Amino acid sequence: MSHPSGTVIISGGGTGGHFYPALAIAGFLRDSGYDVRYIGAKRGIEAEKLAKAPFPCYFLNAFGWNRKFLTIFKSIFFLVYNIFLSAMIIRKADPEFVIITGGYASLSSGLAAAILGRKLYIQEQNAFPGLTNRILYFAAAKIFLGFPLSAFPFPFNLHSAASKLILSFNPVRPEFQEGPFERPKHVFFVGGSQGSQAINDIFLRSKEILLSRGYSITLACGIRYYDAFKSQACDKITVKPYSEKIWEDLRSCRFVVSRCGASSLAELIRTSTVSVLVPYRISANNHQWHNAQVLERRMAAISVDESELDKIDWISLFNGLESRYNEYAKNIAALRMKSLDRDFFQVFVEILGLKP
After folding, report:
1. Tens-digit pLDDT profile for residues 61-78
2. Do 300 and 332 contact (CB within 8 A), yes or no?
3. What is the rounded distance in angstroms from the CA atom of residue 323 to the CA atom of residue 343?
4. Distance CA 15, CA 33 (A)
5. Which of 242, 245, 240, 232 has the alpha carbon at shortest distance from 206?
6. Whether 119 contacts 97, CB under 8 Å
7. Neighbour-count burial for 109-138, b at 16+ CB within 10 Å, e otherwise
8. 119, 96 in Cβ contact below 8 A?
9. What is the pTM of this model?
10. Residue in 54, 61, 64 with CA at minimum distance from that of residue 31
11. How many angstroms separate the CA atoms of 128 and 76, rounded?
């Protein structure tokens, strides 16, 4: 690949769903020869994860929005202030382009880039775009979509927005792209580093059913739930607070029970992992439900409503999953091939005009 010498600014984070795609993009662009700078939030996951980053990072006091007057006032104040700070960073760095992945800090970075007339790219992870990316679509040169949109939420000029959209799937770290994929009779329950009460509840409801059918189980219950669940460990059940190498757990299970944030689904697709998805019902814009529909409509996953766990016949659910497992596996593998064909980095290289 040709080696540019320009500077780029990446902004995004707050949650892992926004941060890890930004981190993957940062690594790719740095390996491609770009001088990378990162703008994030002091309150976001990025402040800890990038403490020893090999590139300059700037962390802003960025806040979300709710209906409390004082919080709205504080958010507006810091948004204006952060636009000013971001503009100073962008003006000094003089980047070839700015790319944002969503989250509190990326709104001020994106608006600053627009005000300064800098080329702006958006990487949208979810099937229903977040507020930041919906606001900034007007200023973006291109919008890279992690999934086909389940709705078209961009306002104003429909044709103008549609012409900017590029389906490129979500960027994932190299570890998730490596094989081989083994599928023993093993189930992986995972709810993120902090854990999910709903995922842990499903584990309790289904463990005896799975054990009776010859499955072994790994439960990544979350740090805050570990003391309560570590006593569940036995010969056939492994319990840990979180998965340090989740790509290994995904490559070595028959299916996974998981939340369906965009990054999680990107990892499931790249590892061709059949899944039972549990959308977080109060996620912004209900985006996890929209994400789950991308797989469920393609018969690549099963989705369950966390508010109706008491009503689910788990024996019937697992019977259906086992009887149609080959179909689910074939469909998720087809999605993996499509994601490889429309790999974010390959598409991005084309847009940037870099040569292999």
Report:
1. 887 655 555 566 777 888
2. yes
3. 32
4. 27
5. 232
6. yes
7. bbbbbbeeebebbbbbbbbbbbebbbbbbe
8. yes
9. 0.82
10. 54
11. 24
